[in-house]
Design brief:
This protein is of the alpha+beta class and 203 residues long. It has 3 helices and 6 strands.
Length: 203
């Protein structure tokens, strides 16, 4: 097989030929840029725009996630500090309330000791002293918000009374308190203990 290059066909006599324009010629290196397939590099080539945008979005998402994680940890720490502070304040309030109660009872103890010290010299005065101390203790409870409850002749109220007996009393209305066996202290909404009563029997 001959390796000699083929000569172009002779131009017929009288034919008009167009000169070759420079714009029709490929630019130097164009074939290498298009590659074997004749096309330029696509957007997915290494280092292209698509890869750069994906990396940027991933970096933004990582930064947002780190910020949310930091906020969550700070909120958790604040909540723990608030819980500890509330526990300390609650304990201080309990201690202050116990102290106020103890202060209210101190005069009662002082008068009891005074009555006992005079009992040997004047045994008859002990009764009057105990009565005075009793009134003082009842007053101290009232100042703390627990007034004495020991009424009779009132209708039975399950919120205030505790029935410990039922008696027949023809002069009392059925279901009314006819006897207080143990006084109560405090109202129904803030009761230290209910009144132990006996009520009239219902027919």
């Amino acid at each position: 097989m001959s390796t000699q290059p083929q000569q172009p066909d002779p131009v017929p006599e009288g034919a008009v030929t167009e000169p070759v324009q420079e714009r029709d010629l490929p630019a130097p290196g164009a074939a290498e840029a298009r590659g074997a397939g004749g096309e330029g590099p696509g957007p997915d080539a290494a280092g292209g725009p698509a890869v750069g945008e994906a990396d940027e979005r991933a970096a933004e998402q990582a930064a947002a996630l780190a910020e949310l994680d930091d906020r969550w940890r700070r909120a958790l720490a604040d909540l723990e500090n608030l819980r500890k502070r509330h526990a300390r304040e609650l304990e201080r309030e309990r201690a202050a309330e116990r102290a106020r109660t103890a202060v209210a009872l101190l005069p009662v103890i002082d008068n009891l000791e005074l009555a006992l010290s005079h009992a040997e010299a004047d045994p008859g005065s002990i009764v009057e002293g105990v009565k005075a101390i009793h009134d003082q203790a009842v007053d101290a409870l009232a100042r703390l918000g627990y007034e004495r409850e020991a009424e009779t002749g009132v209708p039975f109220d399950p919120a205030r009374h505790e029935v410990v007996g039922v008696v027949e009393d023809p002069e009392a209305e059925p279901g009314t308190v006819v006897q207080v066996l143990r006084p109560g202290y405090g109202k129904a909404d803030k009761q230290l203990r209910p009144v132990a009563v006996a009520v009239a029997k219902r027919e």
